[in-house]
Amino acid sequence: MSDTVLDVGDLRTSFPSAEGRVDVVDRVSFDVGAGETVALVGESGCGKSMTALSIMRLVPKPGRVEGGSIRVGARDVRTLPVAEMRRVRGGDVSMIFQEPMTSLNPVQRCGRQIVEAIRLHHPESSEEARRRARDLFGEVGIPDAEARLDAYPHQLSGGMRQRVMIAMALASRPKLLIADEPTTALDVTIQAQILELLRTLQREHRMAVLLITHDLGIVNEIADRVLVMYAGRIIEEGGRRDVLARPGHPYTRGLLRSLPGVVERGARLEEIAGVVPRPSEWGAGCRFTNRCPLAFDPCAGTEAPRVEVGARHVAWCHAAARDEGGRS
Length: 328
Fold this sequence. Notes:
Layout: E1 4-17, E2 20-33, E3 37-41, H1 48-55, E4 64-72, E5 75-76, H2 82-88, E6 93-96, H3 110-121, H4 126-139, H5 145-148, H6 158-170, E7 176-180, H7 188-205, E8 208-213, H8 216-222, E9 225-230, E10 233-239, H9 240-245, H10 250-257, H11 297-301, E11 306-310, E12 313-316, H12 318-322
Parallel strand pairs: 3-8, 3-9, 6-7, 7-8
Antiparallel strand pairs: 1-2, 1-4, 4-5, 9-10, 10-12, 11-12
Helix pairs in contact: 3-4, 3-6, 4-6
């Protein structure tokens, strides 16, 4: 698309193991357009957050990005000097995290932290930056903004702290917002408010949003497109309605069948047996094989083929390829 904000191609991020370095993010490719929300979905340990950290060039050592491209606009941020990457990080690209208390400085007032974020990327005086911070607090729905600027993070509720993090992320007017499980620690009412806030801000600013979550209910509320990730790889992608209404991969079906409201009233919720395998346990074939109810001979030893489930909706699955509806 001509207005692509983020374009990730064949991204590989590795960590050392007893067997040598293993790719915990393995040949991942996707894009996000201006004003679009793309949800990256999967269980804990599948590589979602590491994908986000790779994009931000914040992979903790001894991990490292081994290959691929990460283009923000016209620039491949993998090749940028450190100083220039710092300007991109928090400038063109901002990130909000699952738990604000791990990101906010507990001994600095919230307003000061926002002011520092503003002045890092814009040549404004302290007074101008504080006015901008107050406006941002109002924009993200923090009441009595002037007083809350002087509050410490521990003096705010979880929902208010998350709003502070969103205000900080918006301080530089980013083109791309990466939201890593932004509502997990919040109750249902506050969660709905934060999701509605993200939708509103996105419409107003035409931001691209990469939403990282394990919750398909949230995906149904906010996403335009869905990427389903398992054991370091994208295994299905497509429009939200297509993926949720007609999932092509058995793993996606399993995630949906474990959701209240998706199964029939009175029916038992299903579970996906087992856990995501460790990278050292990944074989040559489909990494979902040992948990898949549809697994058959080729699955364990042969890499899954790309199958067109529908228009702009694909899955990587031997069972889907075997299905008469699949077109490889």
